[in-house]
Design a protein that fits this description.
Two copies of one chain form a homodimer. Chain A has two domains: 121 residues, PurM-like, N-terminal domain (60s Ribosomal Protein L30, Chain: A), CATH 3.30.1330; 144 residues, PurM-like C-terminal domain (Phosphoribosyl-aminoimidazole Synthetase, Chain A, domain 2). The first copy, chain A, is built from eleven helices and twelve strands. The longest helix of chain A has 18 residues. The radius of gyration of chain A is 18 Å and the shape is globular. Chain A starts with a helix and ends in an 8-residue tail after the last strand. In chain A, 60% of the residues are buried. Chains A and B meet through helix 1, strand 1, strand 2, strand 3 and helix 4 of A and helix 1, strand 1, strand 2, strand 3 and helix 4 of B. Chains A, B: One of its GO terms (molecular function) is thiamine-phosphate kinase activity.
Chain lengths: 289, 289
């Protein structure tokens, strides 16, 4: 049983799970674990690892439309090099500062594989869930897609500097808060746009129709792809770009664009059912790397 | 550099760390990681693992004198057996319910070694820190010491049922909240009483003088020890009993006993400096197993 099947099997045991964060009164809480073999390719610095790991949890806070309050992390490694550890903490602190949150520490643990678990706490009395979309709305994405896909290729090619730069991202907390009054459903694109659309479709019980020409494919992924088609595929399926994917009434789109500190791309509309790209079914898969 | 030296090296980078929880406004937040090789001996069920891992974080909330609000966990394993996962979730949920908190879910992660990271959120506007003790106060411990030491021996001997039973503990949230008006410094005994006293001594800049006859050594550890001296050693150094260790004015002791739902043992007094047992220096070590 893989992770996804297991999550489905236990859904009934955990009715409060299934969104980017758990809602606890007027707070939202989320936790993640990242580790070397699957999340930190050769060349990722500990500074970038701290930034990215804590950023992934802050992105979940953003996806609820919540303000970022604080984050903690467990740094687990076979040895504790003080410079590496300081780099990690600096990355963790800076990504928190980038979204007006506070990095408040955590714990160390002896572990064979470099592993990081992060937790973020956010505040909102009115979180945006994945379940509020209905047919006939606009579907939008913040920023651009494919930065992580590009980073992975740079790491593969041994250009760690470009890889690290692309691997650090600004969690869309500012956009999430700005979009809260308008968005009917929202999540982050941590598993790729394709997976996100399927997850929103399932949670909201409506369909999604997306046009490939409207996808905000990042220049960095074009630059590292063999043509526009491959770039688009990677932007759709690789994921981990930590952009916000959300729906809102067409009539609210102008106001949302005005309010959001991050550019928004309108990529399609919600429909009665199915998830389609240019009229064809869009595969429900992610983690293309 | 080991975990402890590394923590000391980075203390300046993280001034907000160093207590059982980080304080974030009127909330407290704490995170931990436990894993199979060091924390879950052969025979520990997933139900017990869920209970204990989440309980360890709730114990940190208790140590701040905070109410328990919610907990989340990441369950990382090489495979996801639904029964094992359900057992874990049931343990996590039940330990939360035992302290009037809510288990609100978490995440799954593919990992070679069974690893759990847990986070707990608590609420108090007036947390009890480790730093408030001064000479001439009473030193107390909730409940009893040595349950974990006894559990480890039962696991060693192949009696997993007794091991599991002793491995599940009730986090002292009720006692922590009740003691909040009286305690001047408090922490949990996760690294053993000896380590806890040294940590309180360092944080509060005062000494501790403890009498061995007054230690609340659990019957379970006596039963699995070769005489009273060994039982006492194991109660002092093995740790992970998750009891509260705290100081308070002698004049507040009766009121604190009255308020606390858990029995309190007065084990000694605070002094000007040094950490002593029966007048001799007490070793600053923990993790005896």
């Amino acid at each position: 049983m893989n992770e996804r099947e297991a999550l489905a099997a236990i859904a009934a045991d955990l009715p409060s799970a299934g969104d980017d964060c758990a809602v606890v009164g007027d707070r939202v809480l989320t936790t993640d674990m990242l580790h070397e073999t699957t999340d930190f390719p050769d060349g990722v610095t500990r500074y970038t690892a701290g930034w990215r790991a804590v950023g992934a949890s802050l992105s979940d806070v953003a996806a609820m439309g919540a303000d970022a309050e604080a984050a903690v992390a467990v740094y687990a490694a076979p040895e504790f090099d003080p410079d590496a550890l300081r780099g990690f903490i600096r990355g963790a602190r800076e990504v928190c500062e980038a979204v007006d949150g506070e990095y408040v520490g955590g714990d160390l643990d002896d572990h064979d594989e470099f592993t990081v678990s992060t937790t973020a706490l956010g505040a909102t009395a009115d979180p945006v869930l994945r379940s509020g979309a209905s047919p006939g709305e606009a579907v939008c994405v913040t920023g651009s897609l494919g930065r992580t896909a590009a980073a992975l290729r740079w790491f593969d090619r041994g250009d760690a500097e470009r890889g690290n730069e692309l691997f650090r991202f600004t969690p869309r907390v500012g956009a999430g808060v700005a979009l809260r009054p308008y968005a009917t459903a929202m999540m982050d694109s941590s598993d790729g746009l394709a997976r996100s659309l399927h997850q929103l479709s399932e949670a909201s019980d409506c369909g999604f129709a997306v046009e490939s020409d409207s996808l905000p494919v990042d220049e960095a992924v074009r630059e590292t792809s063999d043509g526009g088609r491959e770039a688009r595929e990677r932007a759709l399926f690789v994921g981990e770009d930590f952009e916000l994917v959300f729906t809102l009434p067409e009539s609210a789109l102008d106001a949302a664009r005005e309010a959001s500190p991050t550019p928004l791309a309108r990529v399609g509309t919600t429909t009665d059912d199915g998830v389609e790209l240019d009229g064809d079914p869009l595969a429900d898969r992610g983690y293309g790397h």
